[in-house]
Amino acid sequence: MNSFKHILVTVLISAVLSSCSGTFPDKKDCTPVGIFDELWNTVNERYVCFPNKDIDWYAAYDEYRGRITGETDDSQLFSTLCQMLGELKDGHVSLTDGHRTWSGHRPDSVGNVSHYVVFEYLGGAGCRMAGGLYYNKIKNGKIGLIRYDSFMDDISYDDLDEAFEFCKDCYGIIFDIRSNYGGMAENELKVIDYLPCKDAIYKTLVRHNDSHTDFIPSGTMYKPGIADRKKVWNKPFVVLIDNKSYSASSVFALSAMNCENVCIMGVKTAGGTSFPYKYELSNGWIFSLPSIKILSSDGMDYECGVPPDIEIELDWEQTKDNKDNIIDAACDYILVSR
Description:
By secondary structure, the protein is α/β, with parallel strands linked by helices. It is 31% helix and 19% strand. The strands form two sheets. Strands 3-4-5-6-9-10-13 form a seven-stranded mixed sheet, sandwiched between helices. Strands 1, 2, 7, 8, 11 and 12 form a six-stranded antiparallel sheet that branches. It is elongated and about 70 Å long. The two termini are 32 Å apart. The model is unreliable at 1-25 (pLDDT under 50).
């Protein structure tokens, strides 16, 4: 049943995008001007993050269109399109011609959580692994700690069963996705399935017409739940986030807000909650663009970052002694909440 639900997510995304309103130019004009106009128009009619950006897309057209002539070669065209897309300052925007790939701004690596310190908590080389998950018990076995470096690392329900089963006697679980730049949406949904939630975890919107701020609901995309309800984790579940938790990590935090036993701790995520979709230009170049806006179950837009329930910054001085004050604070929270 869960496999069917995740297939349904993909089907719904495709159906939503194919039904969006908007007039698109026929894919016939492969001249530099034609390709420029095709890309600009697609962004203008499909991009869902304009309300979150301080950008005049029409002014961008005037600035960059003037650089394109009938004599513009592929290299110049690619560079100009990348510069224009760069105005969006969006890590989910990318362009490739099959040889070169450009992508928008993503959180940099400066100030990443110290993986070395986290794995010291997990027992170093003695920590357990299941798929992309690293996990162990800490605080004399009272608390489970699960580290997920990237939602690009596939996990299965068997992997999650293994980790949650190992922690079944703990007072609570800490789920660390700090410095997790995101990845596959279906991986974060699998984790959410194990958390108690009565309602749909988020809402989705798509563009309605040429207005950058006019949206229509695309329907609820996903409601969590595993077939065996005995596996649902009903004890405290603390999600650790930071300003490098991006894309699927932000969507995970947004989704977890709707779960009954979750506390989100750390600092605001890097955002990127909208869902990117790939488009093909008439010349065969591929670009990605956020085309589905994801809102929290209560209708809040967290494209620019999901805030924590408890804000706490990492004390880098303590990491020199292999201490992580955020993990310690999460442990205290669980011990008090049990």
